[in-house]
């Protein structure tokens, strides 16, 4: 039975990265956080326009999860029609260095990412059998995360 927060953490997560991913994991959460960092305050439709590939239901769910995690604040104004705005909390703003590093990495490697995704899996595999096996595992992991 855990006696303090550190012991509780050790019981729930195998490492700090797992704890971080528990909070920001999800296909669109980091993208939402990025746009809120860039814009400070956004309404739902503004967020939707920025990530128009995501279904509305998914965006709504991920916004709720980010709010429950204490990363974003949802402000509802008492007017008709209702006005709702989203912004980062100080806890959410603490993710800025991570999100900026993700943005920079993506900018630096975008051509490689596009090329990698454009290749047929068999064309991308090396000739060596053990390397092929490792590559198949990596491709399966990437494909699993895309779904």
From TrEMBL:
Any Pfam family matching the protein: HxlR
HTH hxlR-type domain location: 15-114
Record has Iron as a keyword: no
SUPFAM superfamilies: Winged helix' DNA-binding domain
Keywords noted in UniProt: DNA-binding, Transcription, Transcription regulation
One GO molecular-function entry: DNA binding
Record protein name field: Helix-turn-helix transcriptional regulator
């Amino acid at each position: 039975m855990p006696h303090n927060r550190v012991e509780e953490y050790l019981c729930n997560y195998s490492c700090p990265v797992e704890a971080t991913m528990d909070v920001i994991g999800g296909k669109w959460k980091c993208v939402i956080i990025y746009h809120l960092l860039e814009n400070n305050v956004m309404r739902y439709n503004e967020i939707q326009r920025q990530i128009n590939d995501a279904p509305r239901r998914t965006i709504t769910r991920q916004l709720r999860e980010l709010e429950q995690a204490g990363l974003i604040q949802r402000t509802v104004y008492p007017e008709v029609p209702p006005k709702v705005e989203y912004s980062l909390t100080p806890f959410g703003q603490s993710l800025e260095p991570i999100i900026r590093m993700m943005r920079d990495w993506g900018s630096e490697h975008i051509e490689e990412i596009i090329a990698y995704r454009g290749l047929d899996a068999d064309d991308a595999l090396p000739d060596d059998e053990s390397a092929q096996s490792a590559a198949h595992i990596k491709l399966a992991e990437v494909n699993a995360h895309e779904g």
